[in-house]
Amino acid sequence: MAKPRFRVPAGSSRALAPAPRAWAPSPYTAGDQLASDGLVNYLPALGSADGDLLRDRDMATARARDLVRNDGWAAGGIGKEVDSVIGANFRPLSKPDARALGLDDVWAKEFADAVDARWRSWADDPRMMADAARAQPLPQLFALAYRHYLIDGDALGVIGWNEDRPTRTTLRIVDPDLLANPLGRQDGPELRAGVEVDEDGAATGYHFRRGHPADPWAGGRALEWDFWPRETEWGRPMVLHFFDKHRDGQTRGVSRLSPIVETLRMEQRYSVVEIQAAVINAILGTFIESPFDNETVVDLLSDEGGAFGNYTSQRKEFHDARQISLGGARIPHLFPGEKIATVAAARPAAQFAEFESAVLRKIAAGMGITYEQLSADWSKTNYSSARAALIELWRGWNARRQSFAQRFCQPLRLAWLEEQFDAGGLPLPAGAPDFAENPAAYARAKWIGPGRGFVDPVKEAQAAAMRIALGISTLEDEAAELAGADYQDNLTQIAREIGEMPEGMLHPAQESFAKLIGGAPDNGEADRRPAA
Q: Environment class of residue 424 by beta-carbon count within 10 Å: exposed (0-12), middle (13-18) or buried (19+)?
């Protein structure tokens, strides 16, 4: 064995490491258990993802639900995110991957138009045929699922098949409480909180109760379970499960309100106490003060001759007899020796508004929205700060929208599109691959929700036109982002409006485009007709 190039003499101080001490400071303050007074008793335990979550998940969910039911700030924050991420008409725009399928863009547009038309007929059917319970159209089912995700931590749905519907594919949103281990079985490596997993940690199936255990009418159904595999043998999705996965090995989600449950609860109690104090102060605002001190009143009460009773009777008669008013307002007349006194209202506390604002900022940060969005207080906001807040807020909402679309909505679309291929009638050229060969390429779509909105409509419309002119963006992207609109629907409507314009009159879209490119089109028929 080769000797080291340099050798340190045995007696040298460099030869030995420093002698161990009874205690040495940690290189990381976060891990030091003795040096920091603020951390000396802060000793959380390490646990697995499901070990930390599943034990207390039910209580965390119950508290989050109670706050959303009874606390205005929690209910408002949840409602705003559902309205902004999902909205009233969450829908896909077909974008089949023509290159992956070996087909051309002309076919892709024809296919997309046909598929989108069928989707609208199914999703927006006024008979609610897409909903297994026939209670809501599909966009509202998506909103309900997202609401479950925010409050309960899980968005769950099962994709059914109903032979009695025009489109057999149906969706049922499932209460997360129904997903549980059969008959209270212990969590283990292959079954946790109602979810069966394989050795790679992938979910393979779900156990759903037939009835909610808290329902008195559920009877024996609360002790009966149905097993749903994640997908069929040929890959058709059957169960949709969306949650925020924060750690490897996590099987279920946790409420988005969990980190701020205590803060919300404390704020709720503090507000109630302040309001109660203000009401009491208002009720006891004024009173009539008699001229007697405590000792005199005690002597009068012990008077056997009834002098005090006579005195009070005379006061009552005096006040009852003097109902003098001027212009509908009563003029007070006091008995000799009386005077009017008022209570100095000390509540709400002078710092209540500032304190509540600070608490609401913490709550808003925990919910992933801005203070202004949560409190609806825009009094201290200018254009620049509102614009910056909107950009930050929109980035988070857009990320959650895309995640929800990819993991919850897109599998449903895949199952629905499989049925459409089986039904036939879709435009497919000779030699096109079967749906089973590349379902992802056929089902590829861009999901459109509510628009971002405008802080300054003129400036933002001009900026959108500049982005399009520079090739940074497209009309389709701007229509979807700013207004939540379908570009193809816009073009169809604009073409119809242009055709209805009187002779010699330009449509506003033509005039705006002419100004943008710096030209002035003729007033002839060609300008009023859409380009082929």
A: exposed
Using DSSP, state whether 30 is helix, strand or coil: helix
Q: Which two tokens stand for residue 381?
A: 């906001």
What parts of the chain have a pLDDT lower than 50?
1, 4, 6, 8, 12-15, 517-532
For residue 356, what pLDDT is reported? 86
Bridge partner residues of 330 (DSSP): 325
Count of other CB atoms within 10 angstroms of residue 322: 13
Which are the contacts of 350, defined by CB distance < 8 A and separation ≥ 6? none
Distance CA 262, CA 367 (A): 13
Structure tokens at 73: 């700030």
In this predicted structure, what is the pLDDT of residue 23? 59
- 509 touches 494 (CB < 8 A): yes
- In order of 46, 52, 177, 197, the CA distances from 251 in angstroms are 18, 11, 14, 9
d(CA 123, CA 131): 9
Task: Provide the pLDDT for residue 521.
Answer: 45
The residue length of the chain stands at: 532
- Tell me how far apart the alpha carbons of residues 464 and 472 are, in angstroms, rounded to a whole number: 9
HEC states along 77-123? HHHHHHHHHCCCCCEEEECCCHHHHCCCHHHHHHHHHHHHHHHHHHH
In the structure encoding, which two tokens stand for residue 477, read together? Answer: 């992207």
How far apart are the C-alpha atoms of 15 and 10, rounded to whole Å? 6
Mention every residue, 6+ apart, whose C-beta is less than 8 A from residue 48.
Answer: 249
Burial class (CB in 10 A: 0-12, 13-18, 19+), 182: middle
- 91-94 and 445-448 as β-strands: parallel, antiparallel, unpaired? antiparallel
Q: Name which of 17, 95, 68, 210 is nearest 441 in CA terms.
A: 95
3-state secondary structure of 373: helix
**CB count, 10 Å around CB of 165?**
17
Contact 148, 78 (CB under 8 A): no
Residue type for 321, please?
Answer: A
Rounded distance between C-alpha atoms, residue 532 and residue 476, angstroms: 18
Phi, psi of 517 (to 5 degrees): -90, -5
Residue 411: DSSP 8-state? H
Please report the DSSP string for 180-213 in residue order: --GGGPPP-SSEETTEEE-TTS-EEEEEEESS-T
If you search the block for the tokens 């999901």, which residue do you land on? 447
DSSP letters, 214-266, are: T-TT-GGGGG-EEEEESB-TT--B-EEEE----STT--S---TTGGGHHHHHH
Query: Between 138-152 and 383-404, two packed helices, what is the crossing angle to 10 degrees?
Result: 100
- Which DSSP letter does residue 174 get? E
The overall average pLDDT reported for the chain is 83
Helix (H, G, I), strand (E, B) or coil at 316: helix
Q: How far apart are the two ends of the chain, measured CA to CA in Å?
A: 84
Alpha-carbon distance of 531 to 258, in angstroms, equals 55
DSSP-derived letter for residue 456 is S
Are the C-beta atoms of 439 and 414 separated by less than 8 Å?
yes
Which residues have CB under 8 Å from 186's CB, separation 6+?
Answer: none
